[in-house]
Amino acid sequence: MAKGDQIYVLRDLAGVPGLYQHHGIDCGDGTVIHYSKAGEIAEIARTSYEMFSWGSSIYPVRQSLIYTPNVVIERATSRLGERRYDLLLNNCEHFATWCTTGRNESRQLANFGLRTDQLNLPELRQLAEGDRHTTSPAEARANFQKALGDIATAYNTTLADQQTAYKAADEWHRVAQKALAMGREDLARAALHRKVAANRRIETLTAQLSELVELELNLHRNRAFVERQVGSGGVDG
C-alpha cells in the first residue's frame, strides 16, 4: 500500500465474518480517510490504521490510476466531516472510489447483482439498520436465510444477464458474417465490435457468478460456525 491508494478490510455483519468490504484512502502516514462508524452517525474522518482495520488485514484495491496520490488525498480531505452515509447510494466504497477515479461507484453492490434502480431502497435500508443491532441467535439465523435468499436472487438475475449476453454475441457474429457476404466490411467491423463488447460482458458476468457461489459457500460455513457457537453457549441469546 502507498499514499493515495484505495484500501479495504473485510468486516463482519450480523455475526458473519468477512461478509463485506470497508473501504478508505491511505494517506501514507499511518492514517486513513474513510466513513468511520465510531460514533452513532457515520462520518468521513481521518483515523489511524488500527481504527480503520479493527485488527484485520488491509488490502489494496487494484485499479488503473486516474488521479495522482496528492489529488486523491485532496479529494478525500475535501469531504472530511461529511455525514451523508447511505448503504446503497453513498457508502464507504462509493466515497473511496470517487476519491481515486471520480466515479461514485460500489463494485460490491454491482458484483452481487444489486442494482439501485431495481431495489426497494427503504426496505433494504431498514434491514441493514436492523442487521447492525442484531445480537440474538434467532435474528442471526433469520439474517443468514435472508442473505442466502438475496444471493439466490442475484445469481438468477446475473445468470439471465449472462444468457442474454451470449445471445447478443451470437447475433452480432451472424450480423458480421452477413455483412461480409454483402461486401460491407464497415458494417462487419461494427458488428464485430459489438460482439467483442458482448464477450467482455460475458466474462464479467461469469466472474460475478463465481463470486456469488463462493459467497454462498462462505455463508453456509459461517452459519455452521455460528450454530456451533450457539450450541456451546459462545453467543449471547
Walk me through the structure:
The protein is 56% helix and 14% strand. Helix 2 (69-77) crosses helix 3 and helix 6 (137-181) runs antiparallel to helix 7 (185-231). The protein contains seven helices and five strands. The protein folds into two domains: 6-107, endopeptidase domain like (from Nostoc punctiforme) (endopeptidase fold (from Nostoc punctiforme)); 137-231. Mean pLDDT is 78; it is low at 114-135. It is an alpha+beta fold and 237 residues long. It starts with 5 loop residues before the first strand and ends in a 6-residue tail after the last helix. A five-stranded antiparallel β-sheet has the order 4-3-2-1-5. The protein has helices spanning 49-53, 69-77, 92-101, 107-111, 121-132, 137-181, 185-231, and strands at residues 6-13, 16-26, 31-36, 43-48, 59-60.
Q: What share of the residues does DSSP label as strand, in percent?
A: 5-15%
How many helical stretches?
7
**The CATH fourth-level homologous superfamily of the largest domain:** endopeptidase domain like (from Nostoc punctiforme)
Main sheet: which strands, in order across?
A: 4-3-2-1-5
Top CATH class of the largest domain = Alpha Beta
The profile of the biggest β sheet is: 5 strands, antiparallel
Helix content estimate: 55-70%
Tell me the distance between the termini. 40 Å
